[in-house]
Design a protein that fits this description.
The complex is a heterodimer of chains A (about 240) and B (about 325).
Chain A: H1 4-15, H2 19-41, H3 47-70, H4 73-78, H5 81-85, H6 91-121, H7 127-155, H8 159-177, H9 186-196, H10 208-231
Chain B: E1 21-30, E2 33-43, E3 46-51, H1 58-65, E4 73-78, E5 81-82, E6 93-96, H2 108-119, H3 124-134, H4 150-162, E7 168-172, H5 180-195, E8 199-204, H6 207-213, E9 216-221, E10 224-230, H7 231-240, E11 243-249, H8 252-260, E12 265-271, E13 274-279, H9 282-295, E14 300-305, H10 310-319
Helix pairs in contact in B: 2-3, 2-4, 3-4
The chains are: A mainly alpha (about 240), B alpha/beta (about 325).
């Protein structure tokens, strides 16, 4: 853990204090703002619908995408990753440190957004139960997204675009049309966890055991793939 | 340096005792492009210059030695162990990369401390302060690296590479952006570290830098090792190669005839209103030319070497 602490610290400092922070806070604040507008305008408060449509389908995935692809991908792109790679540190420790930052930041941004949105809107049933279920689902689902995008960023410099295409095209369109491919969707697995915790999730999400399995595979598989790739890290550029 | 004597276009045999750095028939290619082509040498304590023009393969070679690139063929050993995919090796190596990127939001001292902590140094604060003092950056130690000049960034990078007191130091174009005073300080520092038994390899495309600092030199051109060994021997090779001059005078024809009688000259021809002269002895020719011109009552208007670029010197060394 002694070498992971400085890795986590420097990654956090790199992630915060930039324009990225403002963008992330605005993004995470969006569902809260929408909830506030619904409340103020006297609209019908429906926590499940807003949390599903806005947080799980949009905010959580995008926050995890921005954070997950940046924690190590931006260091590889700007060349500062070399200072971490020329150290006597097992590569899995680097992957785990970066994953802790990516998953942690995603959770810090998304979970409060879920709770505030849930409190503002209430729910059809027990408002706090719905909000708590979504908070837990987003904690796990957001971590899975973040680790998946982190792993992607170690393989390609186009991780953000590929991740965006996955969220918008695959999960947004194709996974809904192709019934048998839901197990390839982190969003469906996240909704499956929320459903398992008693939320009346719109549509037909993955079954709870399958959801847990999918998220576990993404988390563990993402870390293993990132570690494997980092062990074969090759510097870009130079003559 | 434990590398072979000249002529060194041939691969250098590896020394019997375990050298700090050993490059054994290493090649690296990217698709069809060969960046490093069958290079072998071994290095021990001292300062070695890795000389070559831009694009010669110097950075690729340094990255191979730093375990940041996998050799396509051959092997790189650091302290007798393979460099590729062996993070423990970094206890022995310090790397100063050419790319300027450093964590701009950290101060110089924080950057050095970060490197010390990642190296697992027992007292990172003391190690960082020592390294910052060594590179003469104490006055700016608490300023963010983003505010540093290029030369200061180079020194901050060097401090980061020194915190764990490595036995092997690899520096990629370390003098880039440094002013003359900083350059002299860095050279003195590297010399003292070499005297303390460290193996130091630095790349440069500037002959004078290598000449002033390095005991030994590796000349790389077009991905190949053109020469390796004692700097003075390589310098002599560079000086003794055939040279070509163009001369403009009051009577080119008479001057050409007179010069052909001089033993230092082996060719003279009239081209575009000038005399093109080929000589195998740079010093003898430059001494003889004014004497021959005076004896022939010819006035010299212009004397210009045609092939004195470093590129042509490297090209000549590879062709030998």
């Amino acid at each position: 853990m002694t070498v992971m602490a400085p890795l986590i610290e420097v990654t956090l400092r790199g992630m915060l204090g930039r324009r990225r922070t403002v963008l992330l806070v605005l993004l995470a604040g969006l569902p809260v703002l929408v909830a506030l507008l619904i409340r103020v305008s006297g609209g019908r408060p429906d926590a499940e619908r807003v949390l599903d449509t806005l947080v799980v389908r949009f905010v959580m995935a995008l926050v995890a995408l921005i954070v997950g692809t940046a924690v190590i991908g931006s260091e590889i792109d700007d060349g500062t990753a070399v200072y971490m790679m020329v150290k006597p540190i097992a590569r899995w420790r680097i992957a785990v440190s970066k994953a802790i930052v990516a998953a942690g930041l995603t959770a810090v941004l998304v979970v409060p957004a879920v709770i505030l949105t849930g409190i503002l809107l209430g729910g059809r049933g027990d408002a706090m139960a719905v909000t708590s279920a979504f908070a837990v689902a987003c904690l796990v689902g957001g971590s899975a997204y973040a680790v998946a995008f982190l792993a992607l960023s170690v393989f390609t410099s186009r991780a953000f675009l590929i991740g965006l295409a996955y969220v918008l095209i695959w999960e947004g369109v194709l996974a809904g049309l192709l019934e048998g491919t839901k197990f390839l969707s982190i969003r469906q697995a996240t909704l499956g966890v929320a459903a398992a915790l008693g939320v009346d999730v719109p549509g037909d999400p993955l079954a709870p055991p399958m959801s847990v399995l999918v998220l576990a595979v993404v988390l563990v598989g993402g870390l293993l793939l990132a570690s494997w790739r980092l062990a074969r890290f090759e510097i870009r550029g130079g003559d | 340096m434990t590398a072979s004597p000249l002529p060194a276009v041939e691969p250098t045999p590896v020394a019997a005792a375990t050298p700090a750095l050993e490059v054994d028939h290493v090649s690296r290619w990217y698709g069809n492009v060969v960046a490093v082509n069958d290079i072998s040498f071994a290095l021990g304590p001292g300062v070695t210059g890795l000389l070559g023009p831009n694009g010669a393969g110097k950075s690729t070679l340094l990255h191979l030695m730093a375990g940041l690139l996998a050799p396509s063929a051959g092997r790189v050993l650091v302290e007798g162990e393979t460099a590729w995919r062996r993070p423990e090796m970094y206890r022995h190596i310090g790397l100063v990369p050419e790319r300027e990127a450093v964590h701009s939001y950290l101060s110089g001292l924080e950057f050095a401390r970060l490197n010390a902590r990642l190296q697992g140094v027992a007292d990172p604060d003391a190690a960082a302060a020592r390294a910052i003092a060594t590179v003469d950056l104490t006055d700016a130690a608490d300023r963010a690296i983003g505010t540093y000049s290029k030369g200061m960034r180079q020194r901050a990078k060097l401090a980061g590479a020194l915190v764990h007191e490595p036995t092997v130091l690899l520096l990629d174009e370390p003098f880039n952006g440094m002013d003359p005073r900083q350059r002299l300080h860095m050279m003195a520092l590297l010399r003292s570290m070499a005297a303390a038994g460290r193996t130091i390899l630095f790349s440069s495309h500037i002959l004078e830098e290598v000449e002033r600092l390095a005991d030994s030199v590796l000349v790389v051109y077009a991905g190949r090792l053109a020469a390796a060994g004692d700097f003075r021997s390589i310098r002599r090779l560079m000086t003794d190669r055939p040279h070509t001059f163009t001369v403009r005078s009051s009577d080119d024809r008479r001057l050409a005839s007179a010069l052909l009688a001089d033993p230092a000259v082996f060719g003279a021809e009239l081209i575009d209103g000038r005399v093109l002269i080929r000589t195998a002895d740079y010093d003898a020719f430059t001494r003889a030319l004014p004497q021959v011109a005076r004896a022939s009552a010819v006035s010299l208007f212009e004397v210009a070497p045609t092939d004195d670029s470093l590129e042509s010197v490297f090209s000549y060394l590879v062709r030998r």
